[in-house]
Amino acid sequence: RIFQREGIKPLLGKGHERLNGKKDGEQFVKSITVIFQLMLNISLIFLAIILSVLLFKELFVFGKMLFLGDQNDYVVFLENILIFFLYFEFITMIVKYFKEEYHFPLRYFIYVGITAMVRLIIVDHHDPHSTLLYAVVILILIIGYFIMNLTPRDRPESRWFFKLQISDNEGKKN
Questions:
Q1: Residue 171 pLDDT more than 70?
Q2: What's the DSSP call for residue 18?
Q3: CB 45 within 8 A of CB 93
Q4: Coil, helix or strand for 13?
Q5: What is the Cα–Cα distance from 116 to 124, expressed in whole angstroms?
Q6: C-alpha to C-alpha distances, 160 to 27, 110, 153, nearest whole angstrom
Q7: 8 A C-beta contact, residue 97 and residue 50
Q8: Cβ of 168: how many Cβ atoms within 10 Å?
Q9: pLDDT tens track for 118-162
Q10: What's the whole-number average pLDDT of the chain?
Q11: ∠55-112-66 over CA atoms, to 5°?
Q12: CA atoms within 13 A on the CB side of 171
């Protein structure tokens, strides 16, 4: 109304109706999500490269410690093995992110949490209260993993499932 009253409408030219239209808003939201998804993907690729370098560095330290170092220090040896597996699990989680259409499976976070807690128990086992707390955390993670495996993995895609439900309900009404 203001544009019509002020005589601005002719200045806008063709397509001015779309300025406040639904299509422009949807297109803007889609472009923003694409930009954020691209930034996230690039960041995860860089993180995977950094973790791969650290993984090979840890493998080199592990081999050096195995063949040249003191072999009686098993705690340091186990700590390095668990650090290696933490890097490996994070890289695997990033690969799964790209393979599973841009989402992280929850079970990989649980794997990382269990491995990190085992590492803490090996490294910091001097205080019995902390060790017990770490063991309880591992137990909770394992119970969570068990519960997660009891539920069905195949859930319907939201896009087609809801369309199917709507079309079924409309068919029942007619």
A1: no
A2: G
A3: no
A4: coil
A5: 12
A6: 22, 30, 17
A7: no
A8: 10
A9: 888 888 778 889 899 999 999 999 999 998 888 776 655 555 544
A10: 78
A11: 40
A12: 6
Check: CB of residue 121 under 8 Å from CB of residue 131.
yes
CA torsion sign for 99, 105, 111, 113 is: positive
* Count of residues making up the chain: 174
Q: Which two tokens stand for residue 13?
A: 């030219």
Distance CA 106, CA 149 (A): 11
- Burial of residue 7 (number of CB atoms within 10 Å: 0-12, 13-18, 19+): exposed
Give the pTM.
0.62
Q: What pLDDT does 71 receive?
A: 62
pLDDT tens across 27-38, in order?
Answer: 888 889 889 999
Tokens of 20: 């406040």
Contact 138, 114 (CB under 8 A): yes
- In angstroms, the CA 171 to CA 174 distance is 5
Q: Within 13 Å and on the Cβ side, how many CA atoms surround 97?
A: 17
State percent of the chain over pLDDT 70. Answer: 72
The radius of gyration of the chain's CA atoms, rounded to the nearest angstrom, is 27
User: How far is Cα 82 from Cα 76, in angstroms, rounded to an integer?
Assistant: 10
